[in-house]
Amino acid sequence: MAKITHDVLKDMVAAKRIPILTLDPRWYQLIPEASKTDEIKYWESKVNELLKRQGQITNDLKDVKKIKNQLIQTVVSNMEDDGSNSRKRKKLMDQNQKLIYEAKDKIEQLEDEERELPRELNMANQRLMIETAKFCYSKMNDNKEDLEVLNKWIDATRVKLKKNLLIKQDKETQNEQLYSGLHDLLGPEVMGQLDKINEE
After folding, report:
1. Structural domain includes residue 27
2. Domains: count for the chain
3. Inside any domain, residue 167
4. 8 Å CB contact between 42 and 162
5. Residue range of the domain that includes 106
6. Considering the domain boundaries, does residue 90 fall inside one?
7. φ/ψ (deg, to 5) at 64
8. pLDDT tens digits along 133-181
9. With b meaning 16 or more CB within 10 Å and e meaning fewer, what string describes 82-112?
10. Any domain includes 119
11. 20-55 pLDDT tens trace
12. C-alpha 78, offset from chain centre
């Protein structure tokens, strides 16, 4: 049997379209907590970390963009000022521009990570799928071996059952013939007394 590996699955179109396993309740039915291997636990954790990071990046981007817009608004409104206290205003403008550049860099960094994350998440999810498939096929193969043993036992038991049913029918027929013969020979009155003695 060929081994289930990432190389085997990476070219499968269907493997690229699998749902995020840790978000799918069907996955949890396949792999109960007590049955999880160390590899499954590792990749499950990795997928969940990446999902969490993806959500965090989305929130961080929103926050940084909001801050950047507020800083730009502050710079714009300071430009329209009447000119009083220009040294203080210039220092504030320089500080805000520096913060705008830092926000711009942070946004670029977050957007780069946001673009990279789906690939990492897909890879971790595929690894989790591989470990899940390995676990399930291993369990199915073990069950198949057990089923073969059980089928042999059931077949042997079925043969014994048929033999024993024939023996049982034969003995019941013999008892009926013996009783009927005694009944014909001795009559109902004697048979009634013999039945009572036999029962006691």
Report:
1. yes
2. 1
3. no
4. no
5. 6-141
6. yes
7. -65, -40
8. 999 999 999 999 999 999 999 999 999 999 999 999 999 999 999 989 9
9. eeeeeeeeeeebeebeebbeebeebbeebee
10. yes
11. 999 999 999 999 899 999 999 999 999 999 999 999
12. 57
